[in-house]
UvrABC system protein C (Streptomyces spinosisporus), 676 residues
Amino acid sequence: MADPSSYRPRPGEIPDSPGVYRFRDEHRRVIYVGKAKSLRQRLANYFQDLTNLHPRTRTMVTTAASVEWTVVSTEVEALQLEYSWIKEFDPRFNVKYRDDKSYPYLAVTMNEEFPRVQVMRGHKRKGVRYFGPYSHAWAIRDTVDLLLRVFPVRTCSAGVFKNAARTGRPCLLGYIGKCSAPCVGRVSEDEHRELAEEFCDFMAGRTGTYIRRLEQRMTEAAEEMEYERAARLRDDIGALKKAMEKNAVVLADATDADLIAVAEDELEAAVQIFHVRGGRVRGQRGWVTDKVEEITTGALVEHALQQLYGEEKGDSVPKEVLVPALPDPALPVQEWLADRRGSNVSLRIPQRGDKKALMETVERNAQQALALHKTKRASDLTTRSRALEEIAEALDLDSAPLRIECYDISHLQGDDVVASMVVFEDGLQRKSEYRRFQIKGFEGQDDVRSMHEVITRRFRRYLAEKEKTGEWSEGQDALTEEDGRPKKFAYPPQLVVVDGGRPQVAAAKKALDGLGIDDVAVCGLAKRLEEVWLPDDEDPVVLPRTSEGLYLLQRVRDEAHRFAITYQRTKRAKRFRSSPLDDLPGLGETRKQALLKHFGSLKKLRSATIDQICEVPGIGRKTAETIAVALAQAAPAAPAVNTATGEIMEEEPGTMGSSGEPVTTGAPDERRGQET
């Protein structure tokens, strides 16, 4: 590791102007490229106290051995130069989008004598009309196969075309009517080019006028009793409509836009792009990247724009680009896009309407892509084994932690304090062993004390199960119930992970020590900097950014957080929906609904007399008296009700009703999905 002060430039050497900078390692390899509005201010951020830097940034500056820069005139030039250098040097610490394969386009070679429809990849060529990109080449071929019936444009290669012209015999498509066979002179060059232009117009979204024209011609043919021609036109219209169904109509016909969405976590991000042309989704593509550097959503969007449009010109950049967050600053990026297109480009965040709704669809696709990527990564046995070995090595464990339990505390401003316990075995979720806890030992917000209580309760149950089985002398059968299911809390973990830093780790360790448990390791994962804390260490363990062990710990922590906050929200919603009528014996859901429907609200029901309550079908006098008393007791400072007459009595000074807060009684249910 290099000392950044050894290669730090003097402040006076760094210009206060826009530019692009490169960090190089000891072998002169470029490891990071960045741009800045002010090189002096930006580079000063890298050479501050290392403890103030994000771990990923700290790793970069300590790996580097030198820094150099290039001054440019504007921020747009800086953006262009940054992209060029990233493509040239492929720096290890820059954002890199994986799975950025060359997506296929539907291309029409209008620059040839007889234009050809084909699938194309790679760089765009002048004089060729492109439509897409598409996710798969077969999607293009399906669309073309439907359209060739109406627009029989040439699709054959140059060799096949010349051979057909030499022999005077067209290919099979010419015989079945899916090619106009210009190779043998069935149509002239101008007629074939007109067909190609109509094909391009249809693909560009100008479909309504053409179909209406065909429908009119079909009607005229039928009126003239040319039924065969009318039937052929009818089939052509059906083929076009079927092709149109393959591209959902989502926006106005004139809309040309790209919608970009980002789904991210602390370690990775997924980008999804929908290409809308002529109001239809013409293509979709996506990338996944490791977040090697500390980066915002706006910066991820900026890198995606560079990746998407860096090699493209003209029509490839649409009039409108919709994003979830704007780059900072946004103006240079917008000017760069306008330069690539040759006209103004709108770069903005959709706020309402159809574009906002479509953006939500793109966001869902990005989230699914990220989840699928994580699932594939987690399902790989070799990767999981390496992750467990890295955790064992980093935490100095005797063996790989095959069972990991993670705990998280959740509350809303001190109310409804709950905790979660999630279990991963062999690097995979074991959802049947998840548990939820209500904090019972005290009121209010205290995450450290809550963590101590939860760990104590969980491992006290473990010790109780251990004592029942006679120190495990009966073998594996001692761990299961008579029906073969595992006993609750019977299996001890090799590693306990808590969501938090040193205070939470110390609380968990204290709880285990208090129970005399010394064979379970404890660590904490602090979310802000992804640092791993151990009970007896002053400094955290910083796992490498590319570590599979760090990735597994983060998955465990995030799952515990999700499970805890879901339970906390459920409890809060249940409390808000609670009613004084919920606990009345003999009053089921049907009669409760009948009461509320009759009176319109709980407030009106509370002010009703017993005789008025008796008017509700199914409610007798005794039940009405019980309801009146329950409602009176549940309302603070509520007046008393004479159960004999149903009249409201004067309240004695100093008396108050109960708070009406619902109380849970009975033994806790230890099953999955229930609180403990």
Residues 225 and 235 are 17 Å apart (CA to CA).
